[in-house]
Amino acid sequence: MNPLGPLVIKGSQVKLADTFAGERYGVPLDWLMEAAGWQIARQVDRPAAVVCGFGNNGGDGLAAARHLYRWGKLVRLCCIDTNRFRDASARELDALQKLGVEVLEELRLDGGDIVVDALLGTGLSGPPRGKFAEWIEAINASDKYVMSVDVPSGLDAESGVAYAPIVKPNLTITFALPKPGLMPMGGRVLAIDIGVPTEAYEAFGVPIPRDLFAAGDVVEVQASPG
Q: In the chain, where does DSSP find H-type helix?
């Protein structure tokens, strides 16, 4: 049973709350991205390939990849257009490169049991195209266990529309609250705490329960099918 009922947070609200967390409460995006990466990596229990786009969702994936590398669980890191990473995401990429982690700009999923999907996040507003579409289709065809970061790549987090193609995850690790359209995608869903102040969500009309993470920083919102 979903403990949150119909409560969701839209992509536009996520962006506003993240910005407000830094400007009003001194919790910058770099901190949130690092917390997101840590939480994602904690859920990976087998060797994994991490697949990243160049936005903030990709930055979360990069942060996760760095922890997985430290723990001996990273088998591949594949990124689209590394020269387009900016700000916090670019700093995550720089940290990985200083550690000597190989960053591939071609998709290779061999050698691992899990694929971490960090291609597209809550800013998506149209169907994936080009290399994004190609990589999504390859992930779906891989027969690997797929973990999506915040939303499956291809889901519009504002309207809830599932574009084609869209990643079909076994598990989605969503930040704070589910996004529109996430629950009908199926698969297991975990809501995780990444440290955004509750007040930042409330400022933009998101009535997040103040005790949501009182019992722990991970809440199962939807169980695995069967």
A: 11-25, 29-42, 56-70, 87-98, 130-140, 198-202
